[in-house]
UniProtKB/TrEMBL annotation:
PANTHER family cross-referenced by the UniProt entry: ABC TRANSPORTER, ATP-BINDING PROTEIN
Keywords: ATP-binding, Nucleotide-binding, Transport
The protein's name in its UniProt record: ABC transporter ATP-binding protein
Source organism of this protein record: Asanoa iriomotensis
Residues spanning the signal sequence: none
Superkingdom per UniProt: Bacteria
InterPro entries, alphabetized: AAA+_ATPase (IPR003593), ABC_transporter-like_ATP-bd (IPR003439), P-loop_NTPase (IPR027417)
GO terms assigned for molecular function: ATP binding
Amino acid sequence: MTQAVLQAEGLTKRYGRRVALADCTLDVPPGRVVGLVGPNGAGKTTLLQLAVGMLTPTAGRITVLGDRPGAGPVQLAKVGFVAQDAPTYANLSVEDHLRFGAHTNPRWDQTLADERTAQLGLDPRQKAGRLSGGQRAQLALTMAIAKRPDLLILDEPVASLDPIARREFLSGLMAYTAEHRTSVILSSHLVSDLERVCDHLIVLTASRVRVAGDVDELMGTHYRLTGARRDAADLPAGAEVIEHSAAGRQSTFVVRSVVPIDDPSLSVEQLTLEDLVLAYLSRTAAPHRPELETAR
């Protein structure tokens, strides 16, 4: 598969006067595990619900796997989705869930579903309402991946889980994607989780995309510069300032530059992924910069 798994152009969703997502332009390549990161209320869930066809845009357009989200049974079969609360049916057993999945999904892989529930130690007769939060999340993930989707969309699936359950969920997810080469979009506000599993990043704050691209490319073009106090205008040519702070006689900048920073008066450091994300989050209140809304 070479087509983009998700393309959006000017995608906007409003509820009356409230803007949930504004002028979102993205081009997500296939074969990636995409981390969608931002604070609560940033618009992550809105974007993902637009991607699975649960919402319709107010303006702009979105395609998923080359077609309109939720366009029909064929399109729906290509996308697996786990919502934020990892929904399961409390009065149905694990076995009932798998039987329901097999009945409603034409690409259902019963062997995969059975093997996964056995590996997780889930009792097929156990009702979902009596499972732990981590077990319910794993059951919801099993339902999504046994569809054998081309794209798996996960909306903060580990937000309510304890650290051990979160680690087990992410380990299971990565084992599956490594074996089946499924594209994944995973939203979270926990950067440490995304750092472990993602190779493509989208930062979304205040309803807008702030930066997007492959993690390796982003990490290779962002730097922390420290030196004698100066204005941003005095930085080397081509350095786009993302964040700036000053203390006493020292200035610190987080910048984006496609060329190496060559200035002996500056200390140049690479950023961690968390540093990069926090720099863009802190920029939320800065003037709008349209060039940051296009995936690189």
